[in-house]
């Protein structure tokens, strides 16, 4: 979303409503795909009912959750162990399909950033006491995720899906949890062949998504690894690149 569909101010382009209407008329489903929480995407796109949320670990098709991908309990504890070794200020969120649990003292460190991506937040004193399936652990670090978080988690839980999802965010999911798997699940639910799908992306948590889609579109501002596998390079998000491409594709 950030760096892809949203503009430089983090807002939806004004033309999105028109493009979405044209897509519906043409029988095309536009599915917002994001590391954001399902509740957040539903707030951002009130007219939509199909989403790939939480980096593909929560898939909703036409208003019904058709798949969630949980982290094994032992792996979840290992992620928390790794977080405990960090020597830089950070905030850990334990995400379920419906809310994100966070310690109140850590929430204070990143309240503004958390509110952008998580519409539903539940304070809890000890993340180890949560008795619900966890589909993603998100870690925020204002000093930089790729430099200060990624090496620690890759070394500690590298058999899981460790993805840098933004400049200050990193996500850890099940090895099966990614946007590419989510797209495959969504396509199956809709009865659409993957060859007839297209995906846009800009950062590393979009890699599997672009690798899976029939047509992979990387933004001009995308991470170099995404451009390597892209079929098409769209103009940057600051120039509403997604809208420009969809405008060309849709009748």
Automatic annotation (TrEMBL):
Gene3D superfamilies, A to Z: 3.30.1240.10, HAD superfamily/HAD-like
InterPro entries: HAD-like_sf (IPR036412), HAD_sf (IPR023214)
Keyword match Membrane: no
Tagged with keyword Hydrolase: yes
GO cellular component, one term: cytosol
GO MF annotation list: magnesium ion binding; phosphatase activity
Keywords of this entry: Hydrolase
Signal sequence interval, chain numbering: none
Entry's transmembrane regions: none
PANTHER family: 5-AMINO-6-(5-PHOSPHO-D-RIBITYLAMINO)URACIL PHOSPHATASE YBJI-RELATED, PHOSPHOSERINE PHOSPHATASE
Protein name (database record): HAD hydrolase family protein
Lineage, broadest ranks: Bacteria, Bacillati, Actinomycetota, Actinomycetes, Mycobacteriales
């Amino acid at each position: 979303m950030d760096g892809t569909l949203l503009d430089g101010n983090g807002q939806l382009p004004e033309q999105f409503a028109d493009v979405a209407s044209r897509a519906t008329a043409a029988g095309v489903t536009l599915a917002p795909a994001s590391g954001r929480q399902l509740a957040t995407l539903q707030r951002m796109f009130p007219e939509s009912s199909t989403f790939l949320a939480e980096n593909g670990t929560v898939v909703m098709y036409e208003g019904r959750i058709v798949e969630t991908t949980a982290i094994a309990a032992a792996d979840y504890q290992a992620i928390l162990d790794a977080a405990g070794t960090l020597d830089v200020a950070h905030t850990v969120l334990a995400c379920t399909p419906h809310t994100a649990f966070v310690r109140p003292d850590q929430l204070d460190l990143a309240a503004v950033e958390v509110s952008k991506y998580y519409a539903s937040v539940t304070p809890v004193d000890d993340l180890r006491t949560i008795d619900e399936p966890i589909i993603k652990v998100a870690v925020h670090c204002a000093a930089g995720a790729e430099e200060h978080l990624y090496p620690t988690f890759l070394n500690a839980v590298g058999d899981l899906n460790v993805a840098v999802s933004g400049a200050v965010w990193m996500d850890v999911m099940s090895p099966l949890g990614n946007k590419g798997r989510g797209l495959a699940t969504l396509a199956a639910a809709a009865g659409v062949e993957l060859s007839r799908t297209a995906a846009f992306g800009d950062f590393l948590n979009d890699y599997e998504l672009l690798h899976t889609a029939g047509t992979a579109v990387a933004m001009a501002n995308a991470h170099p690894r995404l451009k390597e596998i892209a079929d098409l390079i769209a103009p940057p998000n600051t120039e509403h690149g997604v809208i420009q491409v969809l405008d060309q594709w849709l009748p």
